[in-house]
Amino acid sequence: MIRVLLIIIYIAFISLGLPDAIMGSAWPMIHNDLNVPISYAGIATMIVSGGTIISSFFSERVIRKFGTGKVTTFSVLLTATGLLGIYISPSFIWICLMGIPLGIGAGAVDSALNNFVALHYKARHMNWLHCFWGIGATSGPFIMSVYLLKDNGWRLGYATIGIIQAILVVCLFISLPIWRKFEAPNNNEEEKSSEVKVSILLKLPGAKAALISFLCYCAVELTTGLWASSFLVMNNGLSTERAAKWVSFYYLGITVGRFLSGFMAMKFNNKQMIRIGQVICILGAAILTLSLSESMQLSGLIAIGLGCAPIYPAMLHETPNRFGKELSQGIMGIQMATAYIGSTFIPPLFGAISQLIGFKFLPIFLLIFMGIMLLSSEHVNKKVKVNNEI
Which residues cross the membrane (predicted)? Predict the structure, then answer.
């Protein structure tokens, strides 16, 4: 049964990645069809991100009350509703409204599945699952591109991905009896006790440093993905098409790196995987800073992607080891919310800074966050080790 459930979770991770990158692919057509400024894409994505952050913060209480299976099923239903709602949207306001269920669903299911996998499966599966998320995130824009050649093609793209999500909802609903076998039943006393524990999560040894690590990781991954192309064009004189191709190699590095990390996790523990990834990231950013040959620049981008690959899955899988299985869901929700804060606000922050100091400082900006991530991660290890010894 646990293997059947694992297959369902793998499919869920592909589905989880499908909607993540389609707004950017479809927006040039959407803003023309709905007659709104192209800058309005930022409003829509901020609404989705806001819903994701809020649902992540409150995910622990909801999951503890209803169980991972039900929360995952309902969350995917929300994302399917949002996607199909955008398909019929008559205006930009409607797209913003549909961003609410999209964001809430994404945050809850992300927190629920990551904690469930961290508790019940080995580290290699966490890496491979996030590799499958990368497959979904890559497939979403590809599916959308097939429809963009047609009239109202963006609507058909959203409808197709929404239908895929709806099919997953049916599969998850059928699998609910399997989920229940792996979740301990709650009673009122346990739930009351858990609420007291949640109130002190941030006081746990290493908790605040762990949150900083998550924020910095997502800041590095998303800032690189968003601004690397502009850096290569503005600073190194590459053509737009060539720069875009190089950034695709960065994302390919993350996806392939997570596939390889699954095998590495059989030999190295989570702490070692995090350190290895952080060192590779720093080396990649250092290569970008040197601004040598084009091949070296490409090597630097790929190195950052490969370095990013094991960090996030390993930090997620290490959560129960750091803070205990009883508190892992609570701290997981806060970690996910903090991660989304990093991915939502830090890339635009660099965009604003670049207007003042230029894109050439992108590698330095990344190195600062990489350094903070490394220091905070090692601080967590030290705090948790001292606490366990006590």
Answer: 40-59, 71-88, 128-149, 155-179, 209-228, 248-266, 273-292, 298-315, 327-346, 352-375
Residue 390 predicted with pLDDT over 50: no
| pLDDT for residue 181 | 80
For residue 199, the model assigns a pLDDT of 56
- Angle, in degrees to the nearest 10, between helices 270-290 and 294-323: 150
How many angstroms separate the Cα of 365 from the Cα of each of 235, 249, 301, 372?
Answer: 15, 21, 14, 11
Residue-number span of the structural domain to which 379 is assigned: 201-389
Burial class (CB in 10 A: 0-12, 13-18, 19+), 357: exposed
- CA atoms of 213 and 315, how far apart (whole Å): 9
Of 196, 224, 245, the last residue of a domain is 196
Q: Which of 194-208, 269-283, 336-350 has the highest mean pLDDT?
A: 269-283
Query: Tell me, what CATH number does 221's domain have?
Result: 1.20.1250.20
pLDDT in tens, 185-242: 554 444 444 453 555 777 888 899 999 999 999 999 988 888 888 888 887 777 777 7
Q: What tokens does 72 get?
A: 């995952």
CA distance 183 to 178: 9
* Intra-chain end-to-end CA distance of the chain, in Å: 39
| Residue 144, CA distances (Å) to 155, 156, 162, 321 in order | 9, 8, 12, 40
Q: Which amino acid is at 32?
A: N
Average pLDDT over residues 34-42: 85
Specify whether 234 is located in the same domain as 380.
Answer: yes
CA gap 83, 43 in Å, rounded: 17
Q: How many residues does the chain have?
A: 390
Query: What's the confidence (pLDDT) of residue 386?
Result: 54
Q: Are 17 and 135 in contact (CB under 8 A)?
A: yes
Yes or no: say if 174 and 353 are a contact pair by the CB < 8 Å rule. Answer: no
Residue whose tokens read 């992300």: 110
